[in-house]
Design goal:
Jelly Rolls, 8-stranded parallel sheet, 34 strands, TIM Barrel, Immunoglobulin-like
Length: about 600
């Protein structure tokens, strides 16, 4: 295997790793970043007598950027240790320790006292360590276990035996670790609920007491201009917006907001947009943005990097992927079976990229090809048969639903997210109709792709199909029931010498030997199969994929992000023509 580096990984400053504030929609002036050098040990048990060396956080030990490049066996324990020395004036009242993500199960100790635990490798957690800290200096110790794909835990695309569409596993801390100190009385959470039609924003607050002890005051700004002030004695406030700036991918306008609660001061932002499934004038179900039918040309994005694995090598790396897709004329990224750091969603918010968010999957078995084969012939097994979907263990089903709730709560305020995708290709799928209904009750402002690609149960907002090996066709009848969505297709492969992780293995759905042939084939695919499908009602299409990942060399850009395989302007023109076809279909009613 070749060890590839992105340009950001090559220039990584280990003394200043990802210093950006990790939570853009809940910023305070109290911030102490713990990324950088920690001590680590990999042992047969939880007892550590000596440390193996230094590891660079937030990169997992399996990644080259961590400085470790070692794999964690499911029977091993990964231990971290760091002495923290806070500035003398840092501690106000409450001291909170934040973890962006730790894969998979973590126990945290402060000065040898257990502070808390967390289970689930993709969602964040916070521990109040106030009562465990005697002064401004203390020790943090963390014990991590990661069974990867040997059990029912959520692993996404990680596999101990990587290959094909499954990738190198990782363990431990893989997102930013940080500390903040808050006043005794503070806001613990809030939710923005845009009311697009009435041009107002509703904000629901949670504080660390049963009822707010102080008035909650807000100031709303647009491009630095103060628009209005509002105040509430309760935990809810509605603000009518005097200036109206809707959010779209073409004009991603955001409002800034300051929130004050006693001594607690927070800076945030929100966007005003409305996502719906509605019939157009001919009764065809469409995705609507801000009360208008909207076409969604998109790409699948796995979010892997050759040097950081699931961890982006820098803030700029996350931003660059989104900018490249915008330049190519895409309006949608399907974030595939992974949760990103919050700053990735922030960049989508401010740059204007709609996101379909997959929930990371897991199951008790790896081979579920039977479901896929049957799905290609229109046979969809009912997902109440847990064993057939790798969900026999009740504990695994309970854990998955817990992580669904954590993920949705974590990302609830992201302006860009239009759709939740709880299941992909029957991987650990179960009770998808019930789970989709639960998600819809929790978040009625977004759509749901309840079973992406396979094992459709007739629910959700989309008739969602993955088509790689057959001609792309959709039933006209389906277009009157749910939004027609081609949620994976293409996957055309080109190995680029010097930019390949595994030169001896080329995985893709159609293989090409030079860039010119790849471009011709992709143009033909869009022209001969996608355009006719749009004329018949197709509203969403998601090309596989943004970048190469390990054996898969079917990206629009190489794994190291150094070589763009498809001409940017040509892709932009393709998406422009597709939009024209979509607009024409709105007038013709699928040639009805």
């Amino acid at each position: 295997m070749n060890q590839l580096y992105t340009k950001w990984g090559e220039s990584l400053d280990k003394e200043n790793v990802m210093p950006e504030y990790p939570r853009p929609q809940m910023q305070r002036d109290s911030y102490y970043n713990l990324n950088g050098a920690w001590e680590y040990a990999i042992t047969d048990n939880e007892i550590v007598t000596t440390y193996d060396g230094k590891i660079t956080i937030p990169f997992s030990p399996e990644s080259v950027l961590s400085g470790v490049n070692r794999f964690l066996d499911p029977n091993h324990t990964l231990s971290y240790h760091r002495i923290v020395r806070l500035p003398d004036d840092f501690i106000k009242s409450r001291l909170l320790l934040h973890f962006g993500a730790v894969d998979q199960e973590a126990i945290v100790y402060i000065d040898n006292q257990m502070a808390g635990t967390h289970k689930g490798g993709f969602t964040p957690f916070t521990l109040d360590i106030t009562d465990l800290v005697a002064g401004s200096e203390f020790a943090i110790d963390i014990r991590v276990k990661d069974v990867t794909d040997t059990s029912y835990m959520q692993t996404g695309k990680q596999r101990i035996k990587r290959g094909g569409i499954f990738y190198t596993s990782q363990s431990g801390i893989w997102q930013t670790v940080w500390i903040e100190s808050l006043p005794a009385d503070h806001i613990t959470d809030f939710r923005f609920v845009p009311n697009f039609d009435q041009q107002r924003i509703e904000i629901n607050f949670e504080t660390n007491s049963d009822q707010p002890k102080y008035p909650i005051r807000v100031k709303v700004y647009y491009q630095g201009k103060l628009l209005q002030k509002a105040e509430t004695p309760s935990d809810n406030i509605v603000v009518a917006l005097k200036e109206w700036h809707p959010w779209t991918p073409e004009a991603p306008d955001l409002y800034d907001i300051e929130i004050e609660y006693g001594e607690d001061l927070i800076k945030s932002y929100f966007g005003m947009r409305k996502f719906e499934r509605k019939p157009d004038s001919f009764g065809i179900m469409r995705f609507f943005l801000n009360n208008k039918p909207y076409f969604l040309p998109g790409v699948l994005d796995q979010g892997y990097y050759p040097d950081g694995l699931l961890t982006p090598p820098s803030d700029e790396a996350m931003e660059a992927d989104i900018i490249l897709m915008k330049q190519m004329g895409f309006h949608l990224i399907r974030k595939h079976i992974k949760l990103e750091p919050l700053r990735w969603y922030y960049h989508c918010d401010r740059l204007g990229m709609i996101v379909w968010q997959d929930i990371p999957s897991g199951s008790e078995k790896k081979d579920i090809a039977t479901n896929g084969i049957l799905a290609q012939f229109g046979v969809n097994i009912q997902d109440k048969h847990y064993r057939w979907f790798g969900r026999k263990e009740e504990a695994g089903r309970i854990q998955f639903e817990s992580e669904v709730k954590e993920a949705i709560n974590h990302l609830k305020n992201c302006v860009c997210i239009s759709t939740w995708v709880p299941f992909n290709e029957a991987w650990g799928q179960f009770d998808s109709l019930r789970i989709s209904e639960s998600i819809a009750k929790t978040d009625p402002t977004r759509q749901i792709d309840h079973a992406s690609g396979w094992s459709d149960q007739g629910g959700g907002d989309f008739y969602s199909r993955h088509i790689y090996f057959s001609k792309i066709k959709f039933s006209r009848k389906k277009a009157y029931e749910r939004i027609l969505a081609l949620t994976e297709f293409g996957g055309y492969s080109l190995l680029v010498e010097g930019h390949s992780f595994n030169p001896s293995k080329v995985y893709g759905y159609k293989k090409f030997t030079d860039k010119a042939k790849l471009e011709v084939a992709l143009i033909n695919l869009y022209d001969k199969e996608i355009l006719p499908a749009i004329e018949k009602g197709l509203s969403v299409l998601i090309y596989t994929q943004l970048s190469d990942v390990e054996d898969e060399v079917n990206g629009l850009v190489t794994y190291d992000r150094k070589y763009v395989k498809f001409d940017i302007e040509n892709m932009r023109q393709i998406n422009k023509y597709l939009l024209q076809a979509f607009k024409a279909s709105l007038k013709s009613g699928m040639n009805k």
